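Protein modeling request. Please complete all fields; requests missing the sequence field cannot be processed.
Requester role: graduate student
Desired output: 3D structure, token encoding
Chains: 1
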Amino acid sequence: MLAGFRGFSLSNKSGAVTMAKVKLNVNGTDHEVEVADDQPLLWVLRDELKLVGTKFGCGMAQCGACTVHLNGTPIRSCQTPATAVQGQKITTIEGLAQNGALTAVQKAWIEHDVPQCGYCQAGQVMSATALLRQTPNPTDAQIDAAMQGNICRCGTYLRIRAAIKSAAKSLSGSAS
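Delivered output (176 residues):
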């Protein structure tokens, strides 16, 4: 097999490129794209659909920069083949805000000045959003557990935790 530029194969054992037509629902919009049958969702989002908020970090599902939601659950799009997610609801960072209104998590990220370089932040926000949907009032331990797969090389973990707590208060209606 030949290795593709983005890490997916360009050919099968016989040397032929294996392509697939994939129907994806991304941020509430249906798309049909033709991709290599093992092409990661990340590269379909970025290269085919031009949704570049989801970032490439490590390519091994270890850093969390590529986190998107699949049916509301955070997944690493760099290791998830696009062919495996047909017929499911995919949400990217671009799909969180509704009608131009930021979510409570996005507002808290701004309020707590979380981003430093900003590279990991889309994945961080996606993981935090999923956490608060599952656990509306998380403890520090629950926040740490949910966010452990998201690496921030700038070390903004304390601001991330503070923003998640602030968003939780806002969502519960007890924001001060």
